[in-house]
Amino acid sequence: MKRHNLPGGYSPTFYLAFLAGCLFFSSMSLLITPLPLYIEEMGGGAREVGLATTTFALAAIVARPYMGRLADTWGRKPILLIGASAFVLGPLSYILARSVPALLVARMFHGVGIAAFTTAYFALIADVTPRARWGEAIGVAGIAASAAVMVASPLGGSLVVRTSFPTVFLIAALIAFSSLIISMLLREPARESVTDSAMNPIGPRIRDVLRLRGVLVPSLATVTMGLSHGAVLTFLPLFGRDRGLGNVGFFFTASGIAIILSRYLVGRLSDRVGRVPLVLPMFIVLAIALAGLNWAYGFGMLILVAITNGIGFGGARVGLEAMVVDSAPGTARGTALGLLYFCFDSGIAMGGMLVGVLASLLGYGSVYLLVGAICLLTMALFAVVMRRPEMK
Question: Is residue 1 part of a domain?
């Protein structure tokens, strides 16, 4: 495929995909703060808020294997369009929901969108980037989600105070529609150029991908990433309100800035020194951040924890994503990434469900401390497994 010398050395398709990703993730991030408050206004509590995250993640979990395989057979662009379309219709369906059960059904439909778009998005990014720069490219591509959280999350918190829930949902749908339009302009590389000739391509089947340790082990470790992300994303607005921490949207702003820097630096450095030496310390940093939430009683401490969280989460995640891309042939890249995000979504679902139950017994702070301990345990197990000679 012919590559053009645009700033940064990436192709036009890379930049268009990045722009579509920024808009797509902005649509989702805009709802971080309003959605839990909307559920409470409908009569729900912490468990219902947790269920909203769980149903969203469960829908993504069910859809991931299919979307990953379809991305390998149909191509990346059609799956991107499916994901963006679901994100247009999802927020609009929230407006029509008149009860928590109806909203949960809408969340399931919305969850299919995240499964489709993110799986095809990162597969396309790898397709149009030279192998030697995969870590850097995946790190940069992930900045779209971080930048969206950084900007759209506090914006959503402000909009819900100044406007109404239906207005916020309509804005989210319009942003997703912009992502859909940009995705239509994308041009995929020729299908034959997607296959990595340096590897033995396999058919896009889950059982074949599961035999690749470089895919399976990082994917299992990503369950913990999802658990921590779900615990923070779902319950931080309620945790911040209970402790009087102010607009917690700024937590996501500070964390987003740190994730952007961490993803870029760790992704680029991992191309030179390897993935594992950087993933392990990032898990430790993430554990420190989660434990720190237990002692966050002021806005300053909240922002410090947010920065630490962003460094650990962004660095660990880009390293795990790059490991999967390294190990999967081009013909099964979508399937492999589908497995990775299947595990991530599973962690989010567990985070939404378990934290919602445990928080009523232990309190949010203690639960965050527990999730931090799980991160340390995951790091230790990951280190042991990756020391085997046959693992890179």
Answer: no
Q: How many beta carbons lie within 10 A of that of residue 303, not counting itself?
A: 17
- Check residue 190 and report its DSSP letter: P
129-150 pLDDT per residue, tens: 888 889 999 999 988 987 887 7
Separation of CA 203 from chain center: 26
Terminal alpha carbon distance of the chain: 29
d(CA 256, CA 249): 10
Asked if residue 48 is part of any domain, the answer here is yes
Dist CA 385 CA 16 (whole Å): 38
Tokens of 85: 């379309």
Q: What is the pLDDT of residue 203?
A: 47
138: domain CATH number?
Answer: 1.20.1250.20
Distance, CA of 83 to CA of 116 (rounded, Å): 5
| Distance separating alpha carbons of residues 386 and 392, to the nearest angstrom | 7
Mean pLDDT (whole number) for 363-385: 89
197 is a domain residue: no
In a domain, 196, yes or no: no
**Which residue range(s) make up the domain with 173?**
10-188+203-386
Selection from 156, 218, 128 nearest residue 25 by Cα: 156
What is the distance between the alpha carbons of residues 109 and 101, in angstroms, rounded to a whole number? 13
Please give the model's pTM, rounded to 2 decimal places.
Answer: 0.79
Distance from chain centroid for Cα 218: 15
47 vs 379, higher pLDDT: 379
Distance CA 347, CA 337 (A): 15
Total count of domains within the chain: 1
